[in-house]
Amino acid sequence: MKYFEAKKARIEIIPMIDIMFFLLVFFIMVTLHMIPDAGITSRLPTSSTAQSMPKPQITLGVDKSGAIHIDNKVLSPQQLTAVLKSKPNTDDLQVTIAGEQNVSLQQLMTVMDACRVAGVTKIGLAAQAATGSGS
User: Fold this and answer.
1) How far apart are CA 112 and CA 98, in angstroms?
2) Range of the structural domain that residue 19 is part of
3) Within 13 A of 51's CA, how many CA atoms are on the CB side?
4) Tens-place pLDDT, residues 81-104
5) pLDDT for position 33
6) Same domain, yes or no: 91 and 117
7) Within this chain, do residues 20 and 84 fall inside the same structural domain, yes or no?
8) Alpha carbon of 70 to those of 30, 38, 102: distances in Å?
C-alpha cells in the first residue's frame, strides 16, 4: 500500500546555486568591460570650462619628459604615427591626449602633429574640472 502514500515535496537547491553563480560571473564580466581602460597616472591640468566628451577610442598619455604612453608602451612621435596609421579609418578615430600639468606646450604640439600626420583629425585634450570658484 505504499503506492497511495503522499510523498514529501522537495525543493532542489543545487540547480538554483548553479544559476546564481552563473549570474554572478556574468555580471562580473559585464562590469569589467564597463571599467575604462587605465593609462599612466598623471595629474591633469584643470580648466573652468572643461566639458565631458564621448569616450575616446585611443587615449595617449604624455609625461613631463615628453614620453608618449599608449597601452602601457612608451612610443616616440614617429612610432605613434605608425601605430595610428595602422588603425582602420583614421578619419573617424578619436584621440584624447592626457598630458600632465607640467608638460610643455611644445611637447603637446609634437604629439598632436604626430596624430595629424597619421590622418587623425579628432583630437582632444584631457583636463579636470576646476573645483574652486574662479574669482
Assistant:
1) 12
2) 6-34
3) 3
4) 888 888 887 777 888 888 877 888
5) 74
6) yes
7) no
8) 24, 10, 19
